[in-house]
Amino acid sequence: MPPKLSVVVCTFNRGKSLKKCLKSLCQQTFSNFEVVIVDGGSQDNTNQVVNRFSQKLKIRLFVDRRPELSQVRDRGWREARGQYVAWIDDDVIASLYWAQEIINTLNDSTHKNIAGVSGPTIINQKLLANRDVFSFYHARGIKKILGEFWNWFFLEGGKFAVGQITKCGAWTPGSNFSQSLKIRKLQDVDYLEACNMTLRRNLIEKVGGFDYGYTGVGEWSELDLAIRVKKLGYRLVFNPKARVNHDISREGVFKRRTHSRQRMENFFRFYFRHIFKFRLDYIFKFSCYLLFLNSYWGYKAISTQNINWLGGWVGTATGFLKVLEKNYENRR
């Protein structure tokens, strides 16, 4: 009998984090699930970790050395046998009732047309402080003023909102904070969290899976998949009880985050496919956001003395050109 749920974990050289992730899956109250691990060719102790937990979990391991994470994630659902497919990161720790809450949400006939579910992806305060995107939240002085502007203008007042994408293309990070645990019922959202995302397998198949046009670390490819499923006429929801803790690792694919050209090209691909409207407010906010992002790439290049961050400037140009090329092809 096939499992009800397939949990896909893509990993690369994160044996220590993967151990904690798999340990949390061993403790789930719901047990009718398999774990599909797609390993990018790890050179650390990943194989030993997988072998150890294979005695407790229904694990199937696949090695896929392709550099594009969107393709590796896509491999996961294609190998999955469950009715529902969940993706979690290898540095995620699932709460005790995480799997059960996913099943409850997707099985509940009183909530119609639900295609996918996500939940809180809590990041502890110490790790939050290390991430630039959250540095505004507890800042002082001029940085606090910039943070207030960031929230008001780019996030449209939604710095603690969950699952929203604003006119400029920014995503609201509310699910990363403990405030999201105070939500009392299912909430419709624009997208699902990449590290805590579950979709119905038949709908993933219907839209063709991941778009391989998202390159590098595949940022925005997960959101793209969820939104394409949503556009079939279904709902995406946030369940505050389907919680994971995201203990962000700086190993593995994290080191490729300096590949900012690909990240910008991915952003352009996503934004003009799903968000952009030919209206003055969208054009103005998007233009301002591009200015902000490119200032950020310059800041990172200077502060880290790593010129690779300036690839974001190149990605802005090439991403825009790809959008123009796509529009030209569609009009032919």
Automatic annotation (TrEMBL):
Alphabetized SUPFAM superfamilies for the sequence: Nucleotide-diphospho-sugar transferases
Parts of the chain that traverse the membrane: none
InterPro entries: Glyco_trans_2-like (IPR001173), Nucleotide-diphossugar_trans (IPR029044)
Domain of life: Bacteria
Location of the Glycosyltransferase 2-like domain: 6-124
CDD domains: Glyco_tranf_GTA_type
Protein name: Glycosyltransferase 2-like domain-containing protein
Organism annotation: Candidatus Shapirobacteria bacterium CG09_land_8_20_14_0_10_38_17
